[in-house]
Specification:
The protein is mostly helical. The protein has 3 domains: 47 residues; 79 residues; 155 residues, hpI Integrase, Chain A. The chain has 15 helices and 6 strands. A 3-stranded antiparallel β-sheet has the order 1-2-3, covered by helices on one side. The protein is elongated, with a radius of gyration of 28 Å.
Length: 337
């Protein structure tokens, strides 16, 4: 097989099964297309020869990093976080010693993951690593780019401990908004209100444009779950946003205000678990929504969760859930006998 640069692109020449077999010669705009055409043509030839069991398919000798590059070319660059995923997987490939993809074993990966855990990597990070790499193999399998099984298909996620989801009381909300009012940043209070009123992530609220606020509704697009969602807001908040839009330049309603929010939070008496500074507003919306009798499926749509399991973290706050705890515990049932 040979691929060479020609005036019109790249030319590939190869035989499907060595000397004496049919030869091919084609020109494509890119080197990658030449390689894919060659692999596809050889695979088609081997499929047609499946009635000859003594003819085994040649082993896929591509390195893990090469498979990641192929995944990126076919699929990854379409993803919103494709660049980040690719960089993450290339890091994993490097730490694994960049083995031949078809030779990677589950035990080899598990040992590497165990070492990462000993270095202090969080369980969620370890599970994200596995998700990205396993999905890469699965995608290449579905597109028939590889013909060997996903070596990570049977590897299970590590258990992630349930973290406390802190939320603010009514008094704490008043205290926080009073602190944000004292900020020099003119956007931080209004962004905080939008998060509290709609359950938005801080980045989603901060990225709002004038066009996405209309008819007493806020529209979130290009979100983490890749689903657009529209959430009603009160006429009072809509009026605040409309008035704020008159004082802004350009199409964006807000500029970056997360640093100002964190400074305001430090000036309050509120204490939160690590890593929940801006997310506490989203948790507060969800918690109060359920405590006030909201439906869990409605909450899932408002928050934009793709998996109901994420929303079920708030189910224990439902009034009927708490009522049953007092009504159906063994002490209560014994007294009624």
């Amino acid at each position: 097989m040979a691929i060479k640069k020609v005036p019109t692109g790249y030319e590939v020449r190869f035989r499907v099964a060595g000397r004496g077999s049919r030869s091919y010669r084609k020109t494509f705009p890119t080197k990658g297309e030449c390689e894919r055409f060659m692999r596809y043509t050889i695979a088609q030839h081997e499929t047609q020869s499946n009635d000859k069991p003594w003819l085994e398919k040649p082993k896929d000798s591509r390195k893990l990093s090469e498979l990641i590059e192929t995944w990126d070319e076919l699929h990854g660059h379409f993803l919103k976080d494709g660049k980040r995923r690719k960089a993450k997987m290339l890091m994993i490939a490097d730490q694994l010693g960049d083995p031949v993809g078809s030779s990677l074993t589950s035990i080899e990966y598990i040992r590497w993951r165990s070492k990462r855990a000993q270095e202090g990597k969080a369980p969620k990070t370890l599970n994200n690593d596995l998700t990205y790499l396993s999905a890469m193999f699965s995608t290449l399998l579905k597109s028939k780019e590889i013909h060997f099984p996903n070596p990570l298909a049977e590897v299970q996620n590590v258990r992630v401990p349930d973290n406390e989801l802190a939320f603010l009381s009514h008094d704490q909300i008043k205290e926080l908004l009073a602190a944000t009012d004292d900020c020099d940043n003119p956007h931080v209070t209004l962004i905080s209100k939008v998060c509290l009123a709609t359950g938005a992530r801080w980045g989603e609220a901060e990225a709002l444009t004038i066009q996405r606020v209309h008819n007493n509704k806020v529209m979130y697009t290009d979100t983490k779950g890749n689903k657009n969602r529209s959430v009603p807001i009160s006429p009072e908040l809509f009026a605040e946003l409309t008035e704020h839009a008159k004082r802004t330049r350009g199409n964006r309603l807000f500029t970056s205000a997360i640093s100002a929010f964190r400074r305001a939070l430090k000036r309050t008496t509120i204490e939160l678990p690590a890593g929940q500074a801006s997310h506490v507003l989203r948790h507060t919306f969800a918690s109060h929504f359920i405590m006030n009798g909201g439906n869990i499926l409605t909450l899932q749509k408002i928050l934009g969760h793709t998996d109901i399991k994420m929303t079920m973290r708030y189910a224990h706050l439902a009034p009927d859930y708490l009522e049953e705890a007092t009504r159906l515990n063994p002490l209560s049932t014994q007294q009624s006998m």
